Amino acid sequence: MVAGGGGDDEGIRRRGCTYRRNDFLPEESFQSWWNYVHALCQTPGRFVDRVLTRSADSTELVEMKARSHNEMKKTLNWWDLIWFGLGAVIGAGIFVLTGLEAKNHAGPAVVLSYVVSGVSALLSVFCYTEFAVEIPVAGGSFAYLRVELGDFVAFIAAGNILLEYVIGGAAVARSWTSYFTTLCNRSDTNDFRIVAHDLPEDYRFLDPIAVVVIIGICCLAVLSTKGSSRLNYIASIVHVIVIIFIIIAGLTKADTKNYIDFAPFGPRGVFQASAVLFFAYVGFDAVSTMAEETKNPARDIPIGLVGSMVITTVVYCLLAVTLCLMQPYGSIDEQAPFSVAFEAVGMGWAKYIVAAGALKGMTSVLLVGAVGQARYLTHIARTHMVPPWFAQVDSKTGTPVNATVTMLAATAIIAFFSSLDVLANLLSISTLFIFSLVAMALLVRRYYVSGVTTQANRNKFIAFLFIIITSSIATSIYWSRTDKWTAYVVTAPLWFLGTFGIWLLVPQARDPKLWGVPLVPWLPSLSIAINIFLLGSIDHASFVRFGVWTVIILVYYFFFGLHASYDTAKDSEAKRLEGGTGNELWKVEAAGVATRDPGLGSGNGSYASATAAN
To answer: Where are the domains of the chain?
Structure first.
């Protein structure tokens, strides 16, 4: 039995959602009950091994990709990525949450909330871009964290990445129903939902339309990535035209009196709204998962990611200003703010254009999200942290059909039950948490390379990074509990000291080969600080839900994921030591990887000495 991939299934062309006996738990630990009990008894040692083990760039680029049986097709360029970025981001966030947060937390100052969230998202985009250029694989942040922070941290992030996509898709699908109701000239956005009075208030409005929309998106996503790109391109163009119409037509009905009370809820309201509105920027990380299907990652990814995020931020600010100039913030509708605003200023006919544009935008968000989330799950399954069945790529379409269908099935279930406000807050926690980890991983990548960084420099780096993280957490906790500013006199200088210490006293151990984040360590450190600060503005109930989800994924990890990934890693290590299949794969493609990193590692030394972290 081959722990790495299911024995005689290797190399066989797979179609659709077919499965074989060894597709789910092929590893040695699960071949008998005795093996499983023995593996459980070794949990502490295996856990330490996985915590301390870091992957290598070349492992992600060659060995992980080989486990999908078929290659993903390289069909995308920077133009595709920009439109994927716009399609992934501009959707339910701007068309729904703007009204919710303007009315309840920020007032007209919601535009500042979008600026804060946009700056945070842009800093994260820089970090993602460097990783995506250097490690262009479908795993996105999961692969980046495996390389720099190790298997265990990557798994925790993976669980939250999957949660982020499922919740994000569910929230957008429910918003799709709300705007569809408006388009059908219904006054109550719950008219097409089924009311289940026996369920709690946040879960009683059942949404069958959202489920049908997700099924349609699933069919599109499994057929072709390039086809999805073309459809997204067309839908996004229509969407942009509608956005331009909203801004121009809305500003003709502007009333500056609505801006007299600009920030009725004060700074706290602005930042509280920023934390929730971060949801509106979620989706750009899906573009990084398409690096494996990009023709020229070094050129296309920076243009696609950074370009789409800058455009998105400008558009969001203009739309927020337009909405709050059209209506007093207290009169804004929470479910379909732009449609209702046009009706309120005597342009009732325009609400149909707005609703149609919103539907186009949210359809694009769902489509790009479906493409991105499937690629995350595919790469996670390549490590066997989840069953390798999810890693299979269809030989005809070149898409991960199993992962796509599974993720969208989970999304449909959540969308059927859960309300938007519950979903948005929980989504923001997962996203901010992951983005903070990616920024930390970038600092590790630049400043720590095994065999290059001296022990003294390593210790200084760890100490300064600890100061950055703890001062950011302290600032966030203090902000969440009081309006006073006294503690900031301590926490802000500490953050500056930690960042300045890395900049001055720790030499960079690695320079980016193709594209790099500017102003390191300042920008990644600022990204960590802002993301953690925004976490302090999210409600307690959402943290409880986040904690419950984290416990669930940890239980799965210690009973299944840990042992499957451990067996797979050791099997691959044995193959390399014996000069087997894994080593042959490495020989074939090592030259290309070496142009990225002469050490063939990621900060952890040579490929052969990377502890075979898979």
So the answer is: 76-557
Q: Mind spelling out the 3-state secondary structure of 367-386?
A: HHHHHHHHHHHHHHHHCCCC
How does residue 109 score in pLDDT terms, banded at 50, 70 and 90?
Answer: very high
Distance from chain centroid for Cα 354: 28
pTM of the model: 0.77
- Measured over the CA atoms of residue 175, residue 180, residue 185 and residue 189, the dihedral's sign is negative
Which pLDDT score is estimated for 1? 39
58 and 146 Cβ atoms separated by less than 8 Å: no
Digit-coded pLDDT (tens) for 533-573: 888 877 787 788 888 888 999 999 999 989 988 888 888 77
- CATH superfamily to which 76-557 belongs: Amino acid/polyamine transporter I (1.20.1740.10)
pLDDT (tens digit per residue) in 474-485: 999 998 888 788
Rounded to whole angstroms, how far apart are CA atoms 251 and 325? 7
Q: pLDDT value at position 589? A: 39
Please give the full DSSP string across 284-308, using - where no structure is assigned.
HHHHHGGGGGBS-HHHHHHHHHHHH
Phi and psi for 194 in degrees, rounded to 5?
-95, 130
For residue 469 the two structure tokens come to 């993280």
CA distance 393 to 379: 11
**In this predicted model, which residue has the larger pLDDT, 57 or 494?**
494
In angstroms and rounded to an integer, the radius of gyration of the C-alpha atoms of the chain is: 24
Cα separation values, 187 from 178, 191, 333, 339, 341, Å: 10, 8, 11, 11, 13
Q: In degrees rounded to 5, what are phi and psi of residue 394?
A: -65, 135
302: which 2 tokens?
A: 């920076």
* Among 4-18, 51-65, 72-86, 528-542, the range of highest mean pLDDT: 528-542
Under 8 Å CB-to-CB from 261, ≥6 apart: which residues?
107, 108, 329
Task: Return the closest-CA partner of residue 436 out of 34, 156, 190, 136.
Answer: 156
